[in-house]
Amino acid sequence: MSKVRRIAIAVVAVAVGVVALLLVAEQRQGRDAKPLPGTALRVLGPQRAILVGTAVRAAEMRDNRAYRQLIAQQFSSLTPENEMKWALVEPERGTFEFKFGDYIVEQAEKAGQSVRGHTLIFDSQLPGWIAELDSREVRQATEQYIRRVVGHWAGRIAVWDVVNEPLTALGELKRTPFPSKLGRGHIATAFRVAHRADPKARLHINEAGAEAIGPKSDRLYELVRELRAQGVPIDGVGFQVHTNLGGIPPTFVDNLRRFAALGVEIAITEADVALKLPPSAADLRAQARVYGDIVRSCRAVKACRQLTVWGFTDGRSWISELQPGNGAATILDEDLRPKPAFGAMQRALSP
Ligand code: XIL
What we know:
By secondary structure, the chain is an alpha/beta fold. The chain has helices spanning 3-28, 41-47, 58-63, 65-74, 86-89, 99-110, 135-152, 177-180, 186-197, 215-229, 252-260, 281-299, 318-322, 340-349, and strands spanning 51-56, 77-80, 114-121, 159-164, 202-207, 236-239, 242-244, 265-276, 304-309, 326-327. Helices cover 45% and strands 16% of the residues. Strands 1-2-3-4-5-6-8-9 form an eight-stranded parallel barrel, surrounded by six helices. β3 (114-121), α7 (135-152) and β4 (159-164) form a beta-alpha-beta unit. It is globular.
């Protein structure tokens, strides 16, 4: 065989190999999403002045085409489910990992979506090295972290959950080693540092289980009132609204209204409705009513401008992953088909 011929064969073999690899990669991306019925949530939301968002997972967006397509079609705002948490962003002190968050921000920008940054100060999902620092070092590391991370995405994150779940069930400031090591006033400092790092980002405090008027939301209300009175740059309050067939408390709308009266914007940030597995058809209908109630609660309060679900498919939801016996908490099933809850959200958002 001539040398030229051998080279030609080698080139063809390499080309075939590359094409095969590309095909395999393409296959692994899976099928296109089946179109969902009716008008997309991201189209309906603005008619009610509500930005409809979802929590997303970067790796899943990268590897699963249908998942990625539905995010682009249905939602106007993305919240990284874990990718912007401290343990993931600064696993070793001084070593930053931005690529997963970057990917989500880039995808959002391509699809004309905004990003909700989640989250800066949180007592969960912290890097291990924090535990070894004394109080002064923790304060320093926290401020550096906020400056670095908010600065990294400055101008590209519409809203930051600056402080996440600061209160206990009774409304006391949490006294775990972190963030209590930061000392009193750490919440105000976090907001001030974040504001300097990205003056355009709107800064929220985000809380779990503060939907009803009661001890916890009373203390949250006092905290937000004080921060505003001190001139701390806090723009809004996020209510997570992780719930179940117990539904949303009857005082939810009044609660939102009293916060709104402080001059802050309101967001529903992590809505989901957990069911006992396996759910019956009646459970799915009851779940749809709860999703509808959540949308209507936001609609009832002018300051409620954003409603984010904590994942949109039962195949990718923290409830099924972390709460044994519970699941089916989202609006699409594991195969990305609409559940009654999806239609209920559409109806509740329709003019
Ligand atoms: C959850 C994620 O969904 C899980 O994937 C992770 O393992 C644990 O954290 N409140 C919050 C979110 O503010 O950050 C939590 O997210 C769910 C409860």
